[in-house]
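Weekly sync, protein design subgroup
Attendees: M.S., D.O., the rotation student, P.L. (late)

Item 1: inverse folding check
M.S. brought a backbone from last month's batch and wanted to see whether the design step gives back something sensible before we order anything. D.O. pointed out we never logged the input encoding, so this time it goes straight into the notes. Structure tokens as presented (174 positions):
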């Protein structure tokens, strides 16, 4: 299930959306925004919240923004997005970026603070993989992350599995 789904859509601007599921009682894997081969897209000022409103103990997986890039020297931008009020007991990712050469993540706010969670799954606010260019590094800057979710699962504020990136001025509270 996804609020916004982009498949081989490039050069799109996805901005000022309010995505929530306050009354849904069933769920599978949930994507607030899903992008596949979404090179050169811009994701800005989106609010993603309450994905498990009617199923607060769901063990389904949640991705606030999921982006799987193509195989060109692409760029992609995530800025000023707000992901909050995410309950449920499954694995959670705020922003997941995979196979983009020059991703930029700026001024995003991600809050995984459901203290009642009993999750044993993985929780990552920002998860960024695979950048192969020292000349064009990925950038993770000025993001605010609060990660006080309950449960025994692994938790990471920033999980940067990149060869080349710049990360500074982020605030991570755990």
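Designed sequence read out in the meeting:
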């Amino acid at each position: 299930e996804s609020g916004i789904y982009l498949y081989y859509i490039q050069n799109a601007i996805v901005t000022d959306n309010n995505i929530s599921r306050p009354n849904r009682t069933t769920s599978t894997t949930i994507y607030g925004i899903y992008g596949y081969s979404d090179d050169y897209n811009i994701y800005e000022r989106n609010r993603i919240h309450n994905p498990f409103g009617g199923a607060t103990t769901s063990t389904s997986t949640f991705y606030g923004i999921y982006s799987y890039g193509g195989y060109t020297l692409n760029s992609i931008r995530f800025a000023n997005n707000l992901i909050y009020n995410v309950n449920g007991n499954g694995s959670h990712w705020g922003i997941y970026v995979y196979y983009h050469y020059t991703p930029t993540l700026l001024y995003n706010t991600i809050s995984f603070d459901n203290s009642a969670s009993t999750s044993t799954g993985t929780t990552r606010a920002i998860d960024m993989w695979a950048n192969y260019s020292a000349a064009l590094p990925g950038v993770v800057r000025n993001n605010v992350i609060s990660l006080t979710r309950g449960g025994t699962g692994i938790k990471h504020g920033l999980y940067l599995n990149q060869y080349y990136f710049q990360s500074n001025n982020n605030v991570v509270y755990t």
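Discussion: The longest strand covers residues 30-36. The mean pLDDT is 93.
Action: P.L. to compare against the previous round before Friday.
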